[in-house]
Amino acid sequence: MIKKLLALPVANRASLLYLGLVAAAALYVGYDLAFVEHADASFSGVLPLALTLPGSLLTIAVLPEAAPDWVQFWLSVAVGAMVDALAVGALYHLARGRGSRWDLSGRPAGRP
């Protein structure tokens, strides 16, 4: 049951495409922070947070304020991306008509 639930965020093309977009946005933030000179603040960090809504905002709300800002940011992006990839994967399988394959009750499909 847990193995199927953990495989759902990465077991289809839609989820992998979404996670690839989030990874590309994270790489862009890293490049922007490391190599681009800014006279003022950069808004590059908004992109990964926007891609991982609402999971990232829920994670930020739950994290303790004692954690450093960069820990809160990257942890919220990572958790938000995995939660959203789980939702994308579930919707993908439902749309493809394979919802019974991901039955988490442990019973074979079609049995009460």
Detailed description of the structure:
This protein has helices at residues 2-7, 13-35, 46-51, 55-62, 69-95. It is mainly α and 112 residues long. The chain has one domain. Helix 4 (55-62) runs antiparallel to helix 5 (69-95). The longest helix has 27 residues, at 69-95. The chain crosses the membrane at residues 15-34, 46-67, 73-95.
Task: State the end-to-end CA separation.
Answer: 17 Å
**Counted beta strands:** 0
Main pleated sheet: none
Q: Which class do the helix and strand fractions yield?
A: mainly alpha
Oligomer class: single chain
Q: Give the overall shape, derived from the CA principal axes.
A: globular
Q: Into which percentage range does the β-strand content fall?
A: under 5%
Low-confidence stretches: none
**Percent range of helical residues:** 55-70%
Number of domains: 1
Instruction: Give the radius of gyration.
Output: 17 Å
Spell the H/E element sequence: HHHHH
DSSP summary: helix tally: 5
Overall pLDDT confidence: 82
Keywords: Membrane, Transmembrane, Transmembrane helix
InterPro entries: DUF7942
